[in-house]
Fold this sequence. Notes:
By secondary structure, this protein is mainly α. The protein has helices at about 1-20, 25-60, 65-70, 75-90, 100-120, 140-155, 160-180, 185-219. It is about 80% helix and about 0% strand.
Amino acid sequence: MELWTMWTHGLQATLGYLSLHFGLSEAVSIIVLTLIARVAMMPISLTAAYRSQKNKDALERIKPALDELRKTYQDNPSELATRTMALYRENGITFLDKVSMVNMGAQGVFGLGVFQCLKRTVFNSKFLWIPNLAKPDFMLTVLVGALMVLGMALMPGAATNASMLTMMAISVMVSIFAIAALPSALGIYWATSNAVTVVQTLALRGLLARITPQVATNS
């Protein structure tokens, strides 16, 4: 608990440092801090996203084999589990590797830390069309929702995956309802983070586009 308190106080001190020593407004300080952290984490998060996409592609390829295993061993759950795991290993499928765990941990620690830091900070400034960072703003909520939709829609295969589209819709709706009741300072953090996610997703699409032709050529 003491470490967590030090972490959130450190984030708050960093925001204050950006404002006092660089002459940034409170909102711009939030944006700069978020950009620095998300860009620093991007190599890990991009690698995790790439591996996740490769897992999805591999699962799609072995779907007929999985269906056959389920049909053959439907009365023998233990054998089905053993052969399924063996099939996953043969195709290099991993659901929770070290990179993914580090990515989730880093994103969670930073996101929750910023959330708590901004929740307890007293804001009395404005930014662009937002009259008060301490109060919710409808247009900012719409912006955050739009960035979330864009980031999810750009994910490879999202447009043709019904279950993914459903999860996207639920996630966006829950987030919009949450942001609509939160201070605009948190909305600015969320919008900045989502903008970075959009850039990361575009980078992922470019990476996959470059690698796929190479794989096809080598095959």
